[in-house]
Amino acid sequence: MSNHSGRGQVAGLPAWDRCAVMGVVNVTPDSFSDGGRWFDTTIAVKHGLDLVTEGADLVDVGGESTRPGATRVDEDEELRRVIPVVRGLASEGVVVSVDTMRASVAQQALAAGAALVNDVSGGLADPDMIPVVAESGAPFVVMHWRGFLEGGNVRGLYDDVVAEVLEELHARVDAVLAGGISPDRIVVDPGLGFSKDSEHDLTLLAHLDRLHALGHPVLVAASRKRFLGRVLAGPAGAPPPARERDAATAAVSALAAHAGAWAVRVHEVRATADAVRVARAIEGARAGPDTPGAHASQASQPAHASQPAPAPQPAPASQTPPRRAEGAR
Fold first, then answer.
1. pLDDT tens profile 104-115
2. 245 given a catalytic annotation
3. 3-state DSSP: the chain helix, strand, coil percent, rounded to 5?
4. For the sheet containing 263-266, what is the strand order?
5. Catalytic annotation, pick one of 7, 81, 196, 265
6. What residues contact 307, with CB distance under 8 A and at least 6 apart?
7. How many whole angstroms separate alpha carbon 251 and alpha carbon 255?
8. What is the pLDDT of residues 230-281, one digit of tens each?
9. pTM assigned to the model
10. Selected catalytic residue, list 146, 196, 225, 329
């Protein structure tokens, strides 16, 4: 069985008994995944409620695209996009996460009812972020981040992507702790697609268990990202559009849940909620020797089939030359 230490409770949030599903509402006109479909406040709130109906445990609301080359919106515009949606969803009892790199947006979103701050920069983009979150007592997502993805400045060279992401995340968590955020309110995110290429993302997913060594719940945000398109396309094919990667996202979600992720962040909720539910049911069926039918099932297997063949493992990043990432989402 996999190590599930990363699926611990986050103080201030409900204690889900399985990997939680975080639905995404992008209140932007230029999202890489949905092209501004939820830019209107009323439509965005309805979409968030629909995601909950489909199985989302919490909803992540963001007003600024983080795709490579995206131009940052100004503070007033981000507030205009985000705060009414946060308020509308929170008033309906939805557990809301605010996806922002600005302390002022986080502060006003928390005042409007948000329960969690999801900062892709881990507090690096705005020095006021950590003090604001610490004072509020809200949980905080610390993502692995090497800077804004502007002008090709993706800083995606690694000798050993797993070791380096762990080291950099550890340093960032230490800074967040030093800033006054409680350790039981910290979530870590490996930052798939941010300053990483497809091989980096796949290697990190193959070694999610190592992130649990940081001692904090793990959020996996793989939904519709570029590396999935490249896997689906194969060596010579053209990657399918973002909205055609939801089945692949659900597959990653099930694997992440089995690896002990605290939550997965996805755009299309229903398929992932089903995948996570099935992964949980299989875990339950394998939970112990007293499971009904377990002994009979084992006895019926030929001796040479009692142990499954080990799955092939990708070569460690240290065995291959450093690769340059091509950007995030």
1. 999 999 999 999
2. no
3. 45, 10, 45
4. 186-189, 140-143, 116-119, 96-99, 58-62, 20-26, 263-266, 219-220
5. 265
6. none
7. 6
8. 999 988 889 998 889 999 999 999 999 999 999 999 999 999 999 999 999 9
9. 0.82
10. 225
